[in-house]
Write a structure and sequence with these properties.
The complex is a heterodimer of chains A (about 80) and B (about 575).
Chain A lengths: L1 E3 L8 E7 L3 H9 L7 E7 L6 E5 L2 E5 L1 H5 L1 E4 L3
Antiparallel strand pairs in A: 1-6, 2-3, 2-6, 3-4, 4-5
Chain B lengths: L5 E6 L5 H9 L16 E4 L8 E4 L11 H12 L2 E7 L3 H14 L3 E6 L1 H6 L2 E3 L1 H8 L2 E4 L8 H8 L12 H15 E3 L6 H10 L1 H50 L4 H6 L19 H27 L2 H7 L1 H6 L7 H9 L1 H7 L6 H14 L3 H12 L3 H25 L8 E4 L7 H35 L2 H16 L7 H6 L4 H7 L7 H13 L4 H11 L1 H25 L1
Parallel strand pairs in B: 1-3, 1-4, 4-5, 5-7
Antiparallel strand pairs in B: 2-3, 6-8
Helix pairs in contact in B: 3-7, 5-7, 9-11, 11-17, 11-19, 14-15, 15-24, 16-18, 16-25, 17-18, 17-22, 17-23, 18-23, 23-25, 24-25
Classes of the chains: A alpha+beta (about 80), B alpha/beta (about 575).
Chain lengths: ~80, ~575
C-alpha cells in the first residue's frame, strides 16, 4: 500500500513512489538521494510534527514534516 | 592546451572539499563534519608544472540550482573558473554523481576526486574506477583528504584534463544514466553495524536522542568551565601576578604616578597598586583582559566545539531542536549560526547563509546579535558577575535566554512570509582526529589574538584619551537621564556602552572600576550583551542583511535593551 513518509513506521522500509511537491522541493529532495524508485528506511520521527529522518543508500536525511507528507512511499503491510 | 588560471573545488556539502583544499594549498581553513562548514569561498594557490594557478574552495552544493546563499555563491563562482576539481564522496556515489553530470554538461574541464576512499573499505563498498572513468569520460583519482592520500596524483591529472560536452538534458535522464553507471561500477558487500552506527541511531531517535542532547550540552558546559577556570587559576593569573606584576610595578615607578604616559600604559593605581582588572592601562588591563580572562574560555570553548563539529553531532542537535526552532520562525539548522555565534558573532553572522530565506536570515541574525553573547563577553561576565555569586550569573544568562525565546516567538508572529522546513543530510559519526582538532582550535584562537587584540588595545587607549580630554564626562551628563533613570546605572557607565561598539569584552571590563552594586552589575552586563553588536559583527551583518534590514534589526536591539534593562531595574 502507498502511504506518505510521515506514516511509515520507524524501522520500516519502502520504495519511494512519488514526490508531490513543486519543482524546487522535488529537486532538492531528489538531490539528497530521495527519488522515485529508491528504497528508503525510516529511522525516526520526531514529536509534534517534527522532522522525519530516513536512510537512503549510505546517507541519512532529515526532512521537515510538511515536505515528508508530500513524499509517497510504497510499503508492504 | 589552454592555460589554467582559476581552479574551483566543487562538490556536495560535507564531502571534504576544505580538507582537500588545505592539502593542495597548505592554507589553513576550518574543516568540520557537517554540511555547510564553508559558506564563503576561500582562495589559495597550487603549484602545477611550474605555474601557480589560483584555487578556490567553493561552498558545497547538491545541484547547480541554488537554494541558499551559500549555494548561490557556489554557482556564481562557476562562471569565473576555468577548471573544476569535482570532489565526490565515494561512500555516496549515486547522489554525488548528479552534480558531476551537471558539471560535465557545462563543458568545463574537470577531474573527479573520489574522496573518503578509505571509508569505502570499512563500509563494504567496491568501486571500479577504470569503468567509472570510461563511463564518465573524465579522470578519476581516489583520495583521502584527511591523510593526503592521492593528492599528488590529483595535481598530476589536472594538466591532462580536456573539456567534454555531453548532453543529457532532463533531470530524469540524468538520474537514469546515473543509476546505470552506479549499477555497473559499484559493488556492495554486507557489513556489520558498528558501535558508532548504533550511537548514530540512538542520538537521532527522539526518545533517546533528547536525553543524549541534554547530556552532551551539560557535559560541554562542564568541560568548558573546568578547562577555562583551570587555565585561569593555575596558569594565567599566577603568570600575570608573579611575573608581569613586578615588571609593571617598576615601570609604574619609572613613569611616575600622575603623568600622561602612566595613565596610558599603566592606568590608575587602585589602593596604591596596579590592579589588572581595574587599572585600565594598555600594558595592564589591556593585556590581562584578552589573555588571562578571555583566551582560556575561548580555548576551551573551541576545543569542545571542534570535537562536536568533527564528530558530526551538530546536525543531529539541529534535527532534535527543529520543533522548538519553528516556533521562532526558524528551522533546526539555524542553531548552527547561533552556536558558532557563542564563540564569536562574526562567523555566526556569516553562517546565516546556510538558511534559505531572507526572513529566516533576518530572524537568526537579529536573535544572535541580541541574545547570544560571544565567548569573550561571556568570559568577562563570568569573571566579573561570578565574583558576586553564581545565581547572579544565572540571572544574566537566564534573561538572555528568555529574550532569545520571547523575541523569536514575537518575530515569528510579526514577520510575514513562509517558514522553510529543514532538509538536511546527517553525516555519519567520525572519531575526531586529535591533530585536526588541535589545528582548528589553534586557527580560531590565533584568529582571535590577531583580530581582537588590536581592537582591545585600541579600545582601552580610546577610553583613556576620552577620559583625559573629559569627553566621557560630557557624554555622561548628556545620556544620564537614560542610563540613570531607565537602567539605574551610574552615568559613567555610558563609557562602557560607547566602548561596547568596539569590543564587548573591554566594555564589560569597564563596569569593574565603577563600584557597582550587584544589581547594577547584572543590569549593566545584560544591557551590554543586548544593545548593539560590536563593530566587526555589525560590518558583517550589514553585508549579509543589507543596510535597510540591518537598521531594522538595530532598532529592535536598542528597543529590547531599553525594555529589558528597564524591567530588570524594576524587578531586581
Amino acid at each position: 500500500m502507498t502511504v506518505d513518509l510521515t506514516q511509515v513506521r520507524p524501522g520500516e522500509s519502502g520504495i519511494v513512489a512519488d514526490i508531490q511537491g513543486g519543482h524546487g522541493m522535488t529537486e532538492r529532495v531528489q538531490a539528497m538521494g530521495v527519488r522515485p524508485g529508491k528504497r528508503i528506511t525510516k529511522i525516526s520521527s520526531h514529536f509534534w510534527r517534527g522532522p522525519q529522518t530516513v536512510q537512503v543508500d549510505n546517507t541519512q536525511v532529515a526532512i521537515g514534516f510538511g515536505m515528508a507528507r508530500r513524499i509517497l512511499i510504497e510499503v508492504e503491510r | 592546451m589552454k592555460e589554467i588560471n582559476k581552479i574551483l573545488l566543487m562538490g556536495n556539502p560535507n564531502v571534504g572539499k576544505s580538507a582537500i583544499f588545505s592539502r593542495l594549498t597548505g592554507a589553513k581553513v576550518v574543516i568540520s563534519n557537517y554540511p555547510g562548514t564553508t559558506v564563503e569561498f576561500t582562495q589559495g594557490h597550487v603549484k602545477i608544472d611550474g605555474a601557480r594557478p589560483m584555487i578556490i574552495d567553493v561552498p558545497g552544493t547538491y545541484t547547480l540550482e541554488p537554494t541558499s546563499k551559500a549555494e548561490e555563491v557556489a554557482v556564481q563562482m562557476l562562471k569565473e573558473g576555468d577548471f573544476v576539481i569535482n570532489i565526490v564522496d565515494a561512500t555516496n556515489l549515486e547522489r554525488n554523481l548528479y552534480l558531476t553530470l551537471q558539471l560535465i554538461e557545462k563543458g568545463i574541464p574537470l577531474v573527479v576526486a573520489l574522496n573518503m576512499w578509505d571509508e569505502t573499505k570499512h563500509q563494504g563498498i567496491e568501486i571500479d574506477i577504470k569503468r567509472l572513468e570510461e563511463r564518465l569520460g573524465v579522470s578519476i583519482v581516489p583520495t583521502c583528504g584527511l591523510t593526503g592520500e592521492g593528492i599528488r596524483e590529483l595535481v598530476a591529472r589536472i594538466s591532462e584534463a580536456r573539456p567534454l560536452k555531453r548532453h543529457l538534458f532532463t533531470e530524469r535522464k540524468k538520474w537514469e544514466s546515473i543509476g546505470r553507471i552506479v549499477n555497473e561500477v559499484q559493488r556492495l558487500t554486507h557489513h556489520h553495524h558498528t558501535f558508532l552506527q548504533r550511537l548514530e541511531e540512538l542520538s537521532i531517535k527522539p526518545v533517546t536522542g533528547l536525553p543524549i542532547a541534554a547530556g552532551v550540552m551539560f557535559c560541554a558546559f562542564l568541560i568548558i568551565r573546568f578547562i577555562g577556570e583551570g587555565l585561569i587559576g593555575y596558569l594565567f593569573e599566577p603568570l600575570f601576578n608573579n611575573i608581569w606584576l613586578p615588571v609593571m610595578t617598576r615601570l609604574s615607578l619609572i613613569l611616575g604616578g600622575e603623568t600622561f604616559l602612566h595613565h596610558i600604559f599603566i592606568g590608575k593605581l587602585i589602593n596604591g597598586g596596579i590592579d589588572f582588572g581595574q587599572s585600565f592601562g594598555l600594558f595592564t588591563t589591556g593585556l590581562f583582559v584578552p589573555i588571562a580572562m578571555v583566551l582560556p574560555y575561548l580555548f576551551s570553548f573551541y576545543l569542545v566545539l571542534g570535537l562536536l563539529e568533527d564528530f558530526g553531532y551538530l546536525p543531529r542537535l539541529a534535527v532534535l531542536l527543529d520543533n522548538l526552532m519553528h516556533r521562532m520562525g526558524l528551522h533546526g539548522y539555524a542553531i548552527i549560526p547561533l552556536i558558532l555565534g557563542l564563540g564569536c558573532n562574526v562567523p555566526g553572522a556569516l553562517a546565516t547563509r546556510l538558511l534559505e530565506g531572507k526572513r529566516e536570515k533576518f530572524i537568526a541574525a537579529t536573535l544572535m546579535a541580541v541574545a547570544v553573547p560571544c565567548m569573550a563577553q561571556i568570559a568577562m561576565i563570568v569573571g566579573l558577575v561570578g565574583e558576586r555569586g553564581g545565581r547572579y550569573l544565572a540571572i544574566v544568562f537566564g534573561t538572555l535566554f528568555l529574550v532569545l525565546i520571547i523575541k523569536g516567538l514575537i518575530l515569528n508572529r510579526v514577520m510575514k512570509g513562509p517558514s522553510p522546513e529543514i532538509l538536511v543530510e546527517i553525516p555519519p559519526y567520525r572519531i575526531p582526529q586529535p591533530i585536526a582538532v588541535v589545528k582548528k582550535v589553534w586557527m580560531r584562537v590565533f584568529g582571535f589574538l590577531k583580530e581582537a587584540l588590536p581592537y582591545v588595545l585600541l579600545g582601552i587607549l580610546f577610553v583613556n584619551v576620552l577620559h583625559v580630554l573629559k569627553i566621557i564626562d560630557y557624554l555622561a551628563r548628556l545620556f544620564s537621564p537614560l542610563v540613570t533613570n531607565v537602567w539605574g546605572l551610574p552615568k559613567e557607565a555610558i563609557s562602557a556602552l560607547i566602548i561596547g561598539f568596539l569590543r564587548k569584552d573591554v566594555a564589560v571590563g569597564m563596569l569593574g572600576p565603577l563600584d557597582l552594586t550587584t544589581k547594577q552589575l547584572v543590569i549593566g552586563s545584560t544591557v551590554l550583551a543586548i544593545y548593539f553588536p560590536c563593530i566587526a559583527t555589525f560590518a558583517v551583518l550589514v553585508r549579509e542583511l543589507g543596510i535597510r534590514d540591518m537598521l531594522k534589526s538595530a532598532a529592535i536591539m536598542i528597543g529590547v535593551a531599553l525594555l529589558v534593562g528597564g524591567l530588570l531595574n524594576i524587578i531586581l
